[in-house]
Amino acid sequence: MIVAVAAYVVSARKPDAPWARSFAFFLRLGVIVIVVRVVIQVAFGAALGTTVLLPLPGIALPTWLAGVRLGGDVMLESVLMAFYDGLRLATILVCIGAANSLASPSRLLKSVPAALYEVGVSVVVALTFTPQLVTDVARVQSARHLRGRATRGPRAIAGAAMPVFEGALERSVTLAASMDSRGYGRRGGVSRAQRRLAAALLLIGLVAACIGSYGLVAAGSPPLMDAPMLAFGVLASIVAVTWSAKGAVRTRYRPDPWWAPEWLVAGSGIAAALLFFGARWLAPLGLETPYDPPSWPTLPLLPMLGVIIAMTPAFTAPSLPSTGSRWQGDRATSPGRAVNA
């Protein structure tokens, strides 16, 4: 359901931009992850359960390789366990692909808090790497197709590698020049000791938040290691970000508006996360998919409501202007053209 909702939101709100073409790549990557996980379990994993899907010969291994096998009978429980594990990772990849397809890198960077601007640049560059790579590969393949050259096979990959790397290097140089021209890295009137203290507080807050998040989903964790630790981590991170923002000198050109559609999108994400956390807290076994013995997965109420709420940005999110309309608007307001008041 999560993959279907992510695909629906992307299809409804995908902008007309180069980074919006990477969602299909993440879908294919998720399918590959599932297939590889199942194949590894069938070929090398220990047999689970008693339901035999396909009897195959196996190779006996020594006792010090317990838990590993080569071949053997294919069990239904083992295949289901591997499928569910691969599906979890594929769902994470699809959600990351949806974020890559919907988020504008420049608008995302402008929304990062001032204290996290350096980290935000690294995160934005990492998030936009795959979409830019997909765009460059498609561009090089189109050029090779127009020239009558091969677009598939080892020769096509070898011929497309150098132009793709050259484009990545040119973008890196352009990004470095634009950051330098905008005075990237300026600092305000904050001492070095205060910056180090804020960075240490932020690190402690993030570590505490990670420990608290793990305590919420882990069974048998101490009472102070779940919700209280998470609350302490979030509070420490907010204090560190607020304190560090005083020493970051940043200006914004045409800041993005934050109106009702933006609040609805942010609220839907927060509500979906809270519903999943609540379901994990109240009924942790309801989120587990049984595979031994095999049975149909259940559909808990709270996660289902969270998935439905996560689909609302397909209707409430503000529509992004297309590249063509923005180009026409720039032409209409360019020098030498009359603009009616």
TrEMBL record:
<feature type="transmembrane region" description="Helical">
    <location>
        <begin position="197"/>
        <end position="217"/>
    </location>
</feature>
<keyword id="KW-1133">Transmembrane helix</keyword>
<keyword id="KW-0812">Transmembrane</keyword>
<feature type="transmembrane region" description="Helical">
    <location>
        <begin position="261"/>
        <end position="281"/>
    </location>
</feature>
<feature type="transmembrane region" description="Helical">
    <location>
        <begin position="23"/>
        <end position="40"/>
    </location>
</feature>
<dbReference type="InterPro" id="IPR003339">
    <property type="entry name" value="ABC/ECF_trnsptr_transmembrane"/>
</dbReference>
<protein>
    <submittedName>
        <fullName>Unannotated protein</fullName>
    </submittedName>
</protein>
<feature type="transmembrane region" description="Helical">
    <location>
        <begin position="229"/>
        <end position="249"/>
    </location>
</feature>
<keyword id="KW-0472">Membrane</keyword>
<feature type="transmembrane region" description="Helical">
    <location>
        <begin position="46"/>
        <end position="67"/>
    </location>
</feature>
<dbReference type="Pfam" id="PF02361">
    <property type="entry name" value="CbiQ"/>
</dbReference>
<feature type="region of interest" description="Disordered">
    <location>
        <begin position="320"/>
        <end position="341"/>
    </location>
</feature>
<feature type="transmembrane region" description="Helical">
    <location>
        <begin position="79"/>
        <end position="102"/>
    </location>
</feature>
<dbReference type="GO" id="GO:0005886">
    <property type="term" value="C:plasma membrane"/>
</dbReference>
<feature type="transmembrane region" description="Helical">
    <location>
        <begin position="301"/>
        <end position="321"/>
    </location>
</feature>
